[in-house]
Write a sequence for this structure.
């Protein structure tokens, strides 16, 4: 199937500009009438929400290509987007620009889009991002950005290339666009707390998504991808997939990544997949500061999400209450009319402002990669029961990936005769 015929002469112009070293993000849309052509990869619930927000900015943007592993999910996503009258005029995705399969991301990229939303399961993020950057496209990456050290190194290389090409990159760590966090960080930078010595964060939830039993006719690979949020190779564990928000806040407050981590946790209630249901991690920074991080998914337990900072002159709670507890979701924010103070919307507003040259350049790929890898470091420490250094963690060759990507391929983990999947055992499991 030929994608986007003669795509478009403008792509050739853009490619030439990149080759000549032109700053694309400040020139492609300089005329003011040029539409931002949007590609969308990964049509789950959060991805569809991110696409809606990307289509809801004040800038001229049009969705022109969509890709997912599963046709029904792609169709449902488009149906949900098209039900909003204000979005319909911004959606132009005929069947020939709807792609399904493991190579759908590449086909979307080949449609000559300017900006691509990468919201497939986290395992695929580094692969998809590297391809987008190679094609010279701006990108929005949903968090987390990697699930292992090889993925982190791929992100770092792609970030370097993206910066050389002058691309704008956004990451779905929306607290970086949230007013109460921005105001708190400004006060910390002004010295209101003195020297920060301790950050405490919590991402404790009553439970994660459950996985239904595998139908006999479904391959193991398809089953795991459909239930990606309970398999470590796909989501990284909920410590990475959810608590990366608070881990990013700690790195932001301390303006660094940790130098080592130690922790503990386990699996007491969860029965699906192979990830754990609770973690406690102590991250140590070069300054001697510590970050104590709790992450839990267990029903009937204390549900709480917040960030607390202790310095030599005082203490501060940044995110708690309606924001910190997650009560204000993207959907509820829209319903309550929080358009002016909706960080999920603002991250897309800021990214597109950067692309068209209407605001400060946004390049969030660095902290997206580092905070994701910090979370991976934490998992390495809890799964192995070891005290793990940052330098050995980022150098690890342990890649959480199948030998090949196909529904008839073997996934990295398989169930035993009872249907249970092997899980990490501290002191035994190799986590590096």
């Amino acid at each position: 199937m030929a994608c986007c015929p003669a795509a478009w002469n403008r792509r050739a112009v853009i490619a030439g500009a990149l080759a000549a070293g032109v700053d694309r993000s400040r020139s492609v849309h300089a005329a003011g009438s040029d539409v931002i052509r949007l590609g969308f990869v990964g049509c789950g619930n959060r991805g569809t929400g991110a696409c809606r927000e990307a289509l809801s900015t004040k800038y001229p943007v049009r969705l022109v290509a969509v890709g997912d592993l599963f046709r029904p999910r792609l169709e449902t996503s488009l149906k949900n987007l098209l039900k909003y009258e204000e979005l319909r005029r911004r959606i132009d995705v005929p069947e020939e620009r709807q792609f399904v399969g493991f190579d759908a991301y590449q086909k979307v990229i080949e449609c000559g889009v300017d900006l691509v939303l990468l919201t497939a399961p986290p395992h695929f993020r580094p692969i998809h991002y590297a391809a987008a950057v190679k094609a010279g496209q701006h990108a929005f990456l949903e968090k987390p950005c990697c699930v292992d050290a090889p993925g982190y190194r791929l992100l770092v290389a792609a970030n370097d290339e993206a910066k050389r090409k002058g691309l704008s990159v956004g990451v779905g760590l929306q607290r970086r666009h949230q007013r109460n966090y921005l105001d708190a960080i400004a006060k910390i930078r002004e010295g209101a707390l003195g020297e920060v010595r301790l950050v405490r964060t919590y991402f404790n939830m009553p439970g994660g998504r459950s996985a239904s039993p595998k139908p006999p006719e479904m391959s193991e690979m398809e089953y795991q991808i459909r239930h990606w949020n309970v398999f470590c190779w796909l989501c990284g564990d909920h410590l990475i997939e959810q608590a990366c928000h608070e881990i990013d806040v700690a790195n932001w407050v301390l303006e660094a990544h940790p130098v080592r981590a130690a922790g503990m946790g386990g699996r007491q209630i969860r029965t699906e997949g192979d990830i754990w249901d609770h973690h406690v991690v102590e991250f140590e920074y070069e300054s001697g500061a510590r970050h104590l991080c709790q992450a839990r998914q267990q029903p009937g337990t204390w549900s709480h999400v917040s960030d607390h900072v202790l310095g030599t002159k005082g203490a501060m709670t940044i995110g708690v209450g309606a924001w910190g507890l997650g009560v204000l979701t993207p959907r509820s924010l829209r319903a309550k009319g929080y358009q002016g103070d909706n960080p999920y919307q603002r991250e897309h507003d800021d990214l597109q402002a950067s692309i068209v040259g209407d605001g400060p350049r946004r390049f969030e790929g660095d902290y997206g990669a580092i905070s994701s890898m910090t979370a991976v470091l934490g998992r390495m420490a809890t799964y192995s029961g070891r005290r793990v250094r940052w330098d050995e963690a980022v150098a690890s060759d342990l890649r959480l990936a199948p030998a090949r990507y196909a529904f008839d391929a073997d996934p990295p983990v398989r169930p035993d005769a009872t249907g249970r999947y092997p899980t990490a055992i501290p002191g035994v499991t190799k986590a590096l």
Residues 5-33, 321-328 have pLDDT under 50 and may be disordered. The chain has two domains: 8-175, 179-340+365-394. The CA atoms of residues 145 and 369 lie 6 Å apart. The first strand starts at residue 36 and ends at 41.
